[in-house]
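Re: [help] complex structure
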Amino acid sequence: MRRLSLVLGLALIGLMVAAAALSLVWTPDDPYLVRPQDRFMPPSWSHWLGADRMGIDLVSRLMVGARTTLMVGVIAVCLAIVVGVPLGVISGIRRGWPSQLLLRISDVMFALPALLLAILLVAVRGASVATATWAIGIATVPVFIRMAHAATLSVMAQDFIDAARSCGASRSAIALRHVLPNIAPIVGVQASASFSTAILAEAGLSYLGLAAPATTPTWGRMMRDGQADLFLTAWPALAPGCAIALAVLGFNLLGDGLRDQLDPRLRELG
Amino acid sequence: MSLLEVNHLNVWFGRGRRPAVRDLSFTIEPGQRLGLIGQSGSGKSVTALAVMGLLAENAQVTGSVRFDGRRLLGAKEAELAQLRGRDLTMVFQEPMTALDPTMKVGRQVAEVIRLHEESSGRETRRRVIEMLDRVGLPNPGRITDAFPHQLSGGQRQRVVLAMALMLGPRLIIADEPTTALDVTVQAQVLELLDAQLAAHQAACLFISHDLAVVARVCQQVMVMLDGAVVESGPVRQVLSQPVHPYTQGLIATARLDLATPGARLPTVEDFYAGGQR
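Output below.
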């Protein structure tokens, strides 16, 4: 049963990655080609999921959109990990006032929704996928600071840390050789969970028109365009909506599965 | 000059709390083995951690600790790190938690070398395997590549001992090194510790609540109660002619061979009313 969520999650994400990779070399149709005669065409052999108001093939557009979604997710989560985890670990090891200040700042950032931050950034830098990625990444940093901080505190309370110190390990040696390997599983699980949040945030920003320009195919943008024609045909909104839901589900299942796999207590029982 | 000199050591956690260690003074000469006995909460482990400089950040410490003439209390962390593992090492009570679960055993032992000496990878590995062999681990080549959870408690404690002995320290602080082990393994590990201390001519601060164990390893003994030393002297003298009622109680309760079957067993409180606090 626990295996199931891992396998299902990996399968969904694998499908998404495969579609994105395939779109680099092949799509069923040109994702930018307007065919007025195919406007609002329901699913058929020529358009598997139908065509949108411009007559553009939805499958092709979804595949290209997967690239944007994945890229935004990967870059934003990597940014959050690279910045957040070291800060969290350091604040967990050195508990002076700078660490306290850092934690309070990250609390304040927690309270500020990603969307608000994104609107702020967009106002300054203009709407683009890059801006959206930055905004999502920055908004995710405090999540990793808190998580890494808490995990570091619990690792630092373990006997083997005292043992390492009694062998002459410095703080930095302990951070690199003992703390990081021990919190890595938790970071992995959090990364998976944050990935799904990032995908949702990107879709939301695109939907609001704060991310990609209209010409760039993204799932959120497609949903927004599809929504306008919801009374004529459901497919242009339904297809990207399902894609988003499945991607989020995939990363959540992966996170759950990873957590179960990595928790040694659960592993022993299974 | 004494190897370790502790003077008027006081440790307390938080303002207004009862101190965990009160006005503790003792010395350890090179090669000498000092036992530290007391019940849980008497301040034994806190003393050990204070000497190592490993107390939690909320601990307040006064007094002085000198190792080989160098001040340890208030010394810079980097300075302490140089001493720890090389001249001054510690064996922990719980072998189950004293090893990092994510690191192979051989690498953990090798860390001690890596932190203090320049040594090639192959040379380090050779020394690690040799050391694991010396602490009586079977098939040391295979054990270096094992993770802690693949070893038994006794094997892990031998690994911990190997780490402590690796660089031939001058003082080993052993904090209840055999308490978590079953009796037969306990005897083996004690024998090993005894032999290795003799071989290295290392001094030892041996912490235990077990009189028999201390009698076996140490020459001198201190009895701690509520953070203060109530009695100290040569092991033989303290065990045969205890002066403080608490020590008398401890010894009486340990002598099960003198108990009459069916009669009520003696408790420390029979001798010392303040014993249970």
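The two ends of chain A are 10 Å apart (CA to CA).
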